[in-house]
Amino acid sequence: MSHLAHVDPEIAALVVAEEQLQADTLRLIPSENYVSHAVLEATGTVLQNKYSEGYPGKRYYEGQQNIDQVETLAIERAKSLFAMDHANVQPYSGSPANLAVYLAFLQPGDTVMGMALPMGGHLTHGWGVSATGTWFRGVQYGVEQTTGRIDLDKVRDLALAERPKVIFCGGTAVPRTIDFPGFAEIAREVGAVLVADVAHIAGLIAGGAHPSPAGHADVVSTTTHKTLRGPRGAMLLSTAEHARAIDRAVFPGLQGGPHNHTTAAIAVALKEAAGPEFRAYAHQVVANAQALGEQLAARGFELVSGGTDNHLLLIDLSGKDVPGKVAAKALDRAGIVVNYNTVPYDTRKPFDPSGIRIGTPALTSRGIPASAMTSVAEWIDLVVAAAKAGDEETITKVRADVKALMDAYPAPGLPVR
């Protein structure tokens, strides 16, 4: 980064500090990961310099000879990897991608159904504080208090009563397999468009570690980072029937020119995800999460739904008598990066909730095996107890142990060890 260091040493120093932080810490936020050197390189190319409103072969700017090929590669790779008829790789991120769904299929005031945010859903699935819950009529389903799982019979009853035009399945804190066929049956019965938001599990789907929504969902919405290990971007995939509506909603409905450097990086990530190494990675993510969950449960941690089928664990710390925010900040001081999170039927406020959310995509990218989850669970247990007791000495000791493990498993894509 010699040019950056010369022009703006302050920003350069912060980038270097972040590189070191990502190298030295155990990153357990489920939505974070490490991208490869190739993906990083693609995001920093001269494709940044080019404006390309429109779609391949139908642009509003000239000089698209190379850009059209880049975007076409990304589209074809996405369609192949996810077995969908159509792909749009232009959405800037997950929330605009979901907003394009609303523009494609709904009018203001129409009813949309999604999982309630406190139950593990996403803001853009019709939750009240989001534009999607302000401009549209959102109705929400949840999970059972006793099991932490979705009761599809209750989802069906709600759909029959409310008659939504769009149904979202998926979310941001859903540790169990999403029943795409079950949701599809409900959507067909009420005449709704089914949208599978697989932002968290896209990489698991690509690697065969989670069932696919292909053949069930009308539209698939996903980010391209998280378990997919691509850049910060998004995609919308659909059946052929909805291709035109999706494309028109993204452009010109919501966006201008696509970010071509991001499109290129998406194409690279999709190529990587089609390989056998990625398939092994996806299955290891799940194995690591399940191993970590078992070790935490053995130490008295309450796992929402009792465990996980994917990359994510949602932990209710009420029984440990430590608020989620307090635990998360203590874990951060120990070099274990998580996020505090509401749990279903939480009695605490969202900014000071009862739980934490953890996941294994990033640590698995470092090659850390399931056998190491015993140590990770032990560290989490020690730090949560130390947070309650005000024991900073233990937190400092765990920080050194975390650093030693990180040194043993260098992160991909980083210029530091």
Automatic annotation (TrEMBL):
<comment type="subunit">
    <text>Homodimer.</text>
</comment>
<feature type="binding site">
    <location>
        <position position="241"/>
    </location>
    <ligand>
        <name>(6S)-5,6,7,8-tetrahydrofolate</name>
    </ligand>
</feature>
<dbReference type="Pfam" id="PF00464">
    <property type="entry name" value="SHMT"/>
</dbReference>
<dbReference type="InterPro" id="IPR015422">
    <property type="entry name" value="PyrdxlP-dep_Trfase_small"/>
</dbReference>
<comment type="function">
    <text>Catalyzes the reversible interconversion of serine and glycine with tetrahydrofolate (THF) serving as the one-carbon carrier. This reaction serves as the major source of one-carbon groups required for the biosynthesis of purines, thymidylate, methionine, and other important biomolecules. Also exhibits THF-independent aldolase activity toward beta-hydroxyamino acids, producing glycine and aldehydes, via a retro-aldol mechanism. Thus, is able to catalyze the cleavage of L-allo-threonine.</text>
</comment>
<comment type="pathway">
    <text>One-carbon metabolism; tetrahydrofolate interconversion.</text>
</comment>
<keyword id="KW-0554">One-carbon metabolism</keyword>
<dbReference type="InterPro" id="IPR015421">
    <property type="entry name" value="PyrdxlP-dep_Trfase_major"/>
</dbReference>
<dbReference type="GO" id="GO:0005829">
    <property type="term" value="C:cytosol"/>
</dbReference>
<dbReference type="GO" id="GO:0032259">
    <property type="term" value="P:methylation"/>
</dbReference>
<dbReference type="InterPro" id="IPR001085">
    <property type="entry name" value="Ser_HO-MeTrfase"/>
</dbReference>
<keyword id="KW-0028">Amino-acid biosynthesis</keyword>
<feature type="modified residue" description="N6-(pyridoxal phosphate)lysine">
    <location>
        <position position="226"/>
    </location>
</feature>
<dbReference type="GO" id="GO:0030170">
    <property type="term" value="F:pyridoxal phosphate binding"/>
</dbReference>
<protein>
    <recommendedName>
        <fullName>Serine hydroxymethyltransferase</fullName>
        <ecNumber>2.1.2.1</ecNumber>
    </recommendedName>
</protein>
<keyword id="KW-0489">Methyltransferase</keyword>
<keyword id="KW-0808">Transferase</keyword>
<dbReference type="InterPro" id="IPR015424">
    <property type="entry name" value="PyrdxlP-dep_Trfase"/>
</dbReference>
<feature type="domain" description="Serine hydroxymethyltransferase-like">
    <location>
        <begin position="5"/>
        <end position="380"/>
    </location>
</feature>
<dbReference type="GO" id="GO:0035999">
    <property type="term" value="P:tetrahydrofolate interconversion"/>
</dbReference>
<dbReference type="GO" id="GO:0042803">
    <property type="term" value="F:protein homodimerization activity"/>
</dbReference>
<dbReference type="GO" id="GO:0004372">
    <property type="term" value="F:glycine hydroxymethyltransferase activity"/>
</dbReference>
<comment type="pathway">
    <text>Amino-acid biosynthesis; glycine biosynthesis; glycine from L-serine: step 1/1.</text>
</comment>
<dbReference type="InterPro" id="IPR019798">
    <property type="entry name" value="Ser_HO-MeTrfase_PLP_BS"/>
</dbReference>
<keyword id="KW-0963">Cytoplasm</keyword>
<feature type="site" description="Plays an important role in substrate specificity">
    <location>
        <position position="225"/>
    </location>
</feature>
<keyword id="KW-0663">Pyridoxal phosphate</keyword>
<dbReference type="GO" id="GO:0019264">
    <property type="term" value="P:glycine biosynthetic process from serine"/>
</dbReference>
<feature type="binding site">
    <location>
        <begin position="121"/>
        <end position="123"/>
    </location>
    <ligand>
        <name>(6S)-5,6,7,8-tetrahydrofolate</name>
    </ligand>
</feature>
<dbReference type="InterPro" id="IPR039429">
    <property type="entry name" value="SHMT-like_dom"/>
</dbReference>
<feature type="binding site">
    <location>
        <position position="117"/>
    </location>
    <ligand>
        <name>(6S)-5,6,7,8-tetrahydrofolate</name>
    </ligand>
</feature>
<dbReference type="GO" id="GO:0008168">
    <property type="term" value="F:methyltransferase activity"/>
</dbReference>
<comment type="similarity">
    <text>Belongs to the SHMT family.</text>
</comment>
<dbReference type="InterPro" id="IPR049943">
    <property type="entry name" value="Ser_HO-MeTrfase-like"/>
</dbReference>
